[in-house]
Amino acid sequence: AKEAGSLFTALAFSLPSGAPMAVILGALMVLGISPGPEMITEHLDLFWTLVVALIVGNLLASGVCLLAARGLARITFIKGTILVPVVILLVVLGAYASNSDIRDVFLAFAFGGIGYLMKIFDYSRVTFAIGFVLGDYVERYFLISVSNLGPGFLLVSPIAMGLLVVTILGLTSR
Q1: pLDDT of residue 85
Q2: Helices 44-73 + 2-13 axis angle, to 10
Q3: Which residue would you say has higher pLDDT here, 76 or 4?
Q4: Among the listed ranges 35-39, 89-93, 161-165, which one has the minimum average pLDDT value?
Q5: What is the band of 174 on the pLDDT scale with cuts at 50, 70, 90?
Q6: Using a CB cutoff of 8 Å and minimum separation of 24, what contacts does 17-20 make?
Q7: Selection from 42, 48, 37 nearest residue 11 by Cα
Q8: Geometric angle at alpha carbon 94, from 93 and 97, rounded to 5°
Q9: Mean pLDDT of all residues belonging to the chain
Q10: Beta strands in 34-73 (DSSP E)
């Protein structure tokens, strides 16, 4: 149920609420579709297809999970020495199958290593994914603002000044 609300904000405003929506936004951007208000007007068929797929998927998942709950609970008793190699095998197969290129496997391991280091050093992996997806938009609109309003636009508007102060406080409060 929470994914429906997340999907609407992700598609309509390009604001992912978590990792799954960041992945969906990334997939749309790879396909050349820019999420946001333009997507709803230009790709309304895709928008409603995603909404209907989410509804049907929720209904099917609820039914399957109710029927398979007992069997799925047994997965928690599988030893890590068995489960981890199976998961790594599936990751390698999935990375290779996407483009049939061995470099994608190395890229998957590189990002897995980055994620592992981020976990060790207590950095948010979700924030990284959101920044990875939204970084291009932030840079583009920042440059548009600087070219239209001048380099000191953050120090003139009270709203921009307030957002700048909140951002600095957020970055230094760690």
Answers
A1: 93
A2: 150
A3: 76
A4: 35-39
A5: low
A6: 18/126, 19/125, 19/126, 19/129
A7: 37
A8: 80
A9: 86
A10: none
With the C-alpha atoms ordered 31, 32, 36, 42, is the resulting torsion angle positive or negative?
negative
- Phi-psi sector, 45: left (phi>0), alpha (psi -120 to 50), beta: alpha
Q: Classify burial at 29, counting beta carbons within 10 Å of its beta carbon; exposed 0-12, middle 13-18, buried 19 or more.
A: middle
4 neighbors 54 (Cβ within 8 angstroms): yes
CA dihedral 91, 93, 99, 105 (to 10 degrees): 50
| The token pair that represents 32 in the structure block | 């050349």
Q: Which residues of 110-123 are buried (b: 16+ CB within 10 A; e: fewer)?
A: eeeeeeeeeeeeee
pLDDT at 2 over 80: no
Residue 21 has pLDDT above 90, yes or no: no
Token digits for 59?
């209904």
Tell me the two tokens of residue 106: 């190395």
126 CB-near residues (< 8 Å, 6+ apart):
18, 19, 22
Calpha distance 36→26 (Å, rounded): 13
Phi, psi values for residue 36, rounded to 5°: 135, -170
